[in-house]
Amino acid sequence: MEVLRLHNLQKSFGSVRALKSASFTLNEGEVVALLGDNGAGKSTLIKAISGVFPVDRGDIYVRGQKVSIRSTRDAMDLGIETIHQDTSLAPDLSIARNLFLGREPVNLKWLGVFAPLDLAKLRDAASALLKRVGISKKLDADALVSTLSGGERQSIAISRAMQFAAKVIILDEPTNNLGVEETHGVLRFVKEVRDAGHSVLLITHNIHHVFQVADRIIVMRRGEIVAEQTVADTDLLTVESIITGADMSALLREARAK
Amino acid sequence: MPVVKRRSSLIRSPQFSSLVILMVLLAVFAIADANFLSPLNISNMMAFLPELGIIALGMTLLLTAGEFDLSVGAVFGLAPVVVMLLVQNGGFDIGIALLAGLLLCIAIGAVNGLIVTKIGISSFLVTLSMLLVVRGAALYITQGFPLKSWDQPGFFVTLLAGSFNIGTFRFYTSLWWFIGLSLLAIYVLHYAKLGNWISAIGSNRNAAVARGVPADAVKIWLFILTSVLAGLAGMISAFRISAASPVAGTGYELEVIAMVVVGGTALTGGRGTILGTIVGALMLRSIRNGIVLIGVPGLAYNIFVGVIILAMLILHALLQKNAARS
Fold first, then answer.
1. In B, which residues are within 8 Å of A89 by CB distance?
2. Where in this chain does the record put each ABC transporter domain (chain A) (predicted)?
3. pLDDT at B5
C-alpha cells in the first residue's frame, strides 16, 4: 500500500538546480534507502518533504491524497517525521520533555503557551514509551538527554517519531559518528520500526548499512534519481558505480589484472 | 533509591551551591559588622534589590533561550526620562505618560528581537548598538542634565514606589513586584509549556524548530519582556528617588548578567534557574552592601565584586565537571 508518492519535484536556489526532477513511491512497512554523493540533491529532497522549504514544482501525495507541505508542522501533522543526527533533541531537557517537545500534554488548555505541563502524564507516557521500545531498563524518563550516548539519542528520537504514529520516518544519516555496536543497535531498531508498520526513508553514505536494513535503494546524482532497485536484485559494487557514475566493477577488474 | 538520588542531584544543582555561598557571605558580613543585619541596612538592601532583580528575571528567561540583552541599563535610564518629560514639559497625565513609556520599551525590545531573529545578527552586537542608541537618546532629549525632581503622590507612584513598615523594617512596594514577578517567572520557566519551549530553543534551536516550536516568536517576545522589565525597574527607581537622570542604570547590564550566571543559569542557553537568579541578585546586592560596611575603600570595591563573581563561576564549573564524571 502506497504511503508517500512524489511526482516530479523540482527546486532551484538561484541558478543552481538542486533538484531537477524527483519521483518515487514509498510503501507501507518498507525501508527505502536514499543514496547519493554530496551535492546529489538528497538533503534538498528530504527538506522539501519535511517542510523546511517549499518546492518550485511537483506534487506530493500522502496515502493517495495530494497535499501541500509549507512548514515542518504541516509535515508532522501529515505523519512525516524527520530525524537528523544532531538536530533532533535538546540535550538540556529530560528524555520525557524531549519526547513531547512541541506536543506537550497540558492542563488548562485555554491558557495557551502559559498552560501548565501535565507532569504526571508526561512522565508516565515517557516511561511507557521507553518500555515499549525496550530501552526502559537502562534509561530513566527524567534523565537529561546530555547524559545519553549517541545511539541512545537516535533511539529516543526514532521512538518519538513512532510515538506520534508517524506514517513516514525520515532518518538523515542516523549512524554518523556512532560506534560499531551502537550502529548495529540503531539498525536493529530501524527494522523494528518497519515491522511495526512504519515506512522509513533512510539517507546515508554507508552502503553496507543499506544492504543490512533496506528493502529498496534509490540513487540520486546531480539532482536527479538515476536508479531505483530492490536490494535483492543488486549488489554493492553495482550501487557504488551508479552513485559515482563510474563503472566500479570495470575498475576493479583492471586493478586485479595489474 | 530514588530519594537518595534526588537529594544528591539537589546538592549538585547550581542554585544550591549558590545558596550555600550566599549563606557563607551573609554570615561573614554579619560577623564582621553588627550593622549588616540591622533593620535599617536590611531595609536598604531590600529597596535596591528589586530594581536589578526584576531585570534579572527577564534576563534569565532570555539567556535560557540562548540570547542576551546589553541594552537593559540604557532602557532603565531612558524610560523614566521620557515619562517624566511628558509629565513635566508636555503636561500629560501620569497614566498616559506611563503608557507611552511602556510602548517605547515594547518597541525597543521588538526591534532587538526582530533584528536578532529575522536578520540573524548576534544579540551581543544588536543590543550593544541598541545600548548606544538608547543611552544617546536619553542624553540628547535631556541635554545631559538630570530632570527636575518630581514628587507628586498618586496612584501610580504608590503602586510602583510606595513604602510601608513592618515593625522596624521599611519595605517598598517594589519588593512585592519582585516577589510576584519571581513566582510568575518560576511558573513559566519550570512548569508551563512555554518554559519547555524556552529551554529547548536555548539548548538546541534546530531541534525545537523541527518540532514546530515558534522559536523566533518566542525570542522576540522575550526581548520585549526584558525591555519592559528594564523600563519598569527604571520607573520604580525614579519614583523612589523622585527624580530621573539620563545616566541612570549605566553598567547595570553587566551586573544583571552577573547575577543571572552566578545563580547558575548557563550563558550558552538551555539551562536556566529563576531561584538561582534570586539567590544571585541577593548575593550581588549583599556583596555591594557588605564590603562597604566592613570598610573596603569605595574605589576598591569593584575588585572584590569581580573576584567573588569569578570565584563563583569557577566553583560552578568544577561542580559541573564532577557531576559529568559521576
1. 204, 207
2. 4-247
3. 45
